[in-house]
């Protein structure tokens, strides 16, 4: 489904919903009086029975029905969540059950030039043909159920909807109850009035006076409507069978899941449909319509053979800034064998969509920078707690500004130090150069801060910086309510160890050979060491630099 098609389906449904709510209001006012219901019918008729209103209403009904048939044809499997099956089933029941009512009202108006009043309509349904009244009561509940399901699974992805549910839920229950109560109250009232001689002749005088041949045509319209509905539905079923026969002639593609599990995907079948057909649970809050991203997967093999991303999928993935190999299972129709990794648990709910922690990790080469403020314990002992906090805040403010100026990403802090990442976007050599520029900027800002606070400090503030370049896992980390994009991995640990080595070498910066090489540094004039790193068996080649500001002169 394209984005334009989805919007047409949404707006046609909203137009129908507006009409249904007005119609229900018409019934509800029957609780007060028949006259009020009649006045409301005339008001609603003025809105919907003019040329513009008719075009909007009937066009929406026809469009919604056609899009529903197209959706049925596109399905490769009938396995779906219960709520989706309920919505599809209710939607299919509406038209055949509603035919008689539409023909008896709008059909009579167009064919017999009769405008059925609310009194005559309720009399026909409650007294003359009570089984038709029961049928219309049932279809009222079916329409309302179909509408509520559609609205719920559209709105539940919207901000603030969850908070409004306690108010919307009672309304959703009361609306059909009040409508049926108004219908029943009017029916009981008319049932008493029907004892009056000449009641039916008065109520149905226009129908009685209509030409018999036109009445016969009007009565036959329901059968023709059923036939057209059956032909449309049968055509979809036959088209699906023909398509399936044609697709079975082609070899199915193999999808490899975690733990080596494999499933077959037929040509033209989406990944989500294949997972459902295989009975494998998979997250999909919107029912596979591209409205959310909960069904997303990471394609880990054969990404070059993936089909082009459509506008609907592209818009959804752009909202979460997804990587190039992340696709929506409901939109991805594989063209070859691929391996995928589901990114959200199958029991994901609408509550989980906006929660932190749903962003998946990704492997990436970056430059990791650690800094640590020296002798922070002594600084804290020499000052009151608030004074020390003020000092730390000034220090971190200067470091954060240096990161901003050099395109660094603040990852986390450790009390008297922080971790930064360079290269979340961009080339590796540029990331390492920016990390060196960040180290120089930080050193310069610390120097300026020392000048500002020289009367308050017994000795200038000092810090150590470690920089390493390597592969890490990037993702949202931390407590659910306070997460930040950070990194984990051996390269992060090495960078932290390099920062600690600045104490041993009594310098301002220790940079690994990997980071120095990626930054295209002139290594001939740098102090080179091969040293063991705590926690690792292999030694690492590093360069100790007294003042990071001098590095810029050799880049």
Quick synopsis:
With 555 residues, the chain is of the alpha+beta class. The protein has helices at residues 3-28, 34-48, 51-74, 82-112, 118-128, 130-155, 161-193, 199-203, 205-208, 212-248, 271-277, 311-319, 350-353, 376-381, 385-405, 428-452, 490-505, 513-518; strands at 253-256, 262-265, 296-301, 326-328, 338-342, 362-373, 409-413, 417-422, 463-477, 484-488, 509-512, 527-531, 540-545. It contains 18 helices and 13 strands.
Could you explain how this protein is built, in words?
- There is one protein chain.
- The protein has 555 residues and is of the alpha+beta class.
- It has 3 domains: 3-244, no CATH class; 253-353, Ubiquitin-like (UB roll) (Roll), CATH 3.10.20; 362-554, 2-Layer Sandwich (Alpha-Beta Plaits), CATH 3.30.70.1230.
- Helix content is 55%, strand content 14%.
- It contains 18 helices and 13 strands.
- Strands 6, 7, 8, 9, 10, 11, 12 and 13 form an 8-stranded mixed sheet that branches.
- Helix 4 packs across helix 6, helix 5 packs across helix 7 and helix 15 (385-405) runs antiparallel to helix 16 (428-452).
- Mean pLDDT is 84; it is low at 354-359.
Task: Give the secondary structure arrangement, pairings included.
Blueprint: H1 3-28, H2 34-48, H3 51-74, H4 82-112, H5 118-128, H6 130-155, H7 161-193, H8 199-203, H9 205-208, H10 212-248, E1 253-256, E2 262-265, H11 271-277, E3 296-301, H12 311-319, E4 326-328, E5 338-342, H13 350-353, E6 362-373, H14 376-381, H15 385-405, E7 409-413, E8 417-422, H16 428-452, E9 463-477, E10 484-488, H17 490-505, E11 509-512, H18 513-518, E12 527-531, E13 540-545
Parallel strand pairs: 1-5, 9-11
Antiparallel strand pairs: 1-2, 3-4, 3-5, 6-8, 6-9, 7-8, 9-10, 11-13, 12-13
């Amino acid at each position: 489904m394209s984005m334009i098609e989805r919007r047409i389906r949404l707006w046609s449904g909203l137009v129908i919903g507006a009409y249904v709510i007005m119609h229900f209001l018409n019934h509800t006012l029957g609780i007060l009086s028949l006259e009020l219901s009649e006045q409301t019918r005339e008001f609603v008729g003025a809105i919907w029975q003019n040329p513009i209103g008719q075009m909007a209403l009937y066009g929406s009904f026809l469009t919604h029905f056609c899009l529903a048939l197209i959706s049925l044809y596109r399905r490769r499997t009938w396995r779906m969540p219960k709520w989706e099956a309920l919505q599809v089933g209710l939607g299919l029941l509406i038209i055949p059950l509603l035919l008689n009512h539409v023909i008896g009202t709008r059909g009579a108006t167009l064919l017999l030039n009769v405008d059925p009043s609310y009194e005559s309509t309720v009399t026909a349904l409650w007294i003359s043909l009570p089984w038709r009244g029961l049928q219309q009561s049932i279809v009222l509940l079916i329409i309302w159920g179909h509408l509520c399901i559609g609205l719920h699974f559209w709105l539940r992805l919207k901000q603030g909807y969850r908070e409004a549910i306690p108010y919307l839920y009672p309304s959703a229950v009361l609306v059909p109850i009040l409508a049926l109560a108004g219908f029943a109250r009017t029916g009981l009232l008319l049932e008493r009035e029907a004892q009056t001689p000449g009641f039916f002749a008065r109520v149905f005088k226009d129908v009685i006076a209509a030409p018999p041949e036109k009445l016969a045509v009007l009565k036959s319209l329901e059968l023709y409507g059923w036939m057209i509905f059956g032909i449309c539905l049968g055509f979809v079923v036959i088209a699906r069978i023909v398509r399936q026969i044609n697709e079975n002639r082609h070899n199915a593609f193999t999808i490899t899941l975690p733990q080596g599990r494999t499933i077959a995907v037929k040509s033209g079948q989406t990944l989500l449909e294949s997972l459902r057909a295989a009975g494998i649970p998979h997250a999909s809050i919107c029912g596979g319509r591209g409205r959310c991203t909960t069904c997303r997967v990471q394609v880990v093999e054969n990404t070059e053979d993936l089909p082009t991303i459509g506008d609907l999928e592209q818009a959804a993935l752009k909202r979460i800034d997804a990587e190039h190999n992340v696709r929506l299972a409901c939109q991805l129709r594989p063209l070859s064998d691929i391996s995928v990794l589901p990114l959200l648990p199958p029991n994901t709910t609408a509550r989980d969509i906006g929660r932190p922690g749903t962003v998946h990790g990704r492997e990436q080469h970056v430059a990791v920078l650690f800094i640590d403020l020296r002798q922070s314990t002594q600084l804290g002992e020499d000052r009151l707690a608030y004074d020390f906090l003020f000092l730390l805040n000034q220090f971190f403010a200067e470091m954060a500004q240096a990161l901003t100026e050099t395109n660094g990403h603040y990852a986390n802090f450790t009390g008297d130090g922080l971790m930064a990442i360079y290269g979340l976007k961009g080339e590796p050599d540029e990331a390492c150069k920016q990390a060196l520029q960040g180290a120089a900027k930080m050193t310069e800002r610390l120097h300026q801060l020392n000048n500002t606070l020289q009367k308050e400090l017994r000795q200038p503030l000092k810090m150590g910086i470690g920089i390493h370049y390597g592969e890490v896992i990037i993702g949202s980390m931390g407590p659910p309510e306070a997460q930040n994009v950070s990194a984990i991995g051996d390269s992060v640990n090495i960078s932290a160890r390099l920062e600690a080595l600045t104490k041993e070498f009594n310098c301002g910066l220790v940079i690994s050979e990997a980071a120095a090489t990626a930054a295209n540094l002139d290594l001939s004039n740098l102090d080179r060491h091969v040293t063991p790193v705590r926690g690792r068996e292999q030694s690492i080649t590093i360069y100790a630099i007294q003042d990071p500001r001098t590095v810029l002169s050799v880049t």
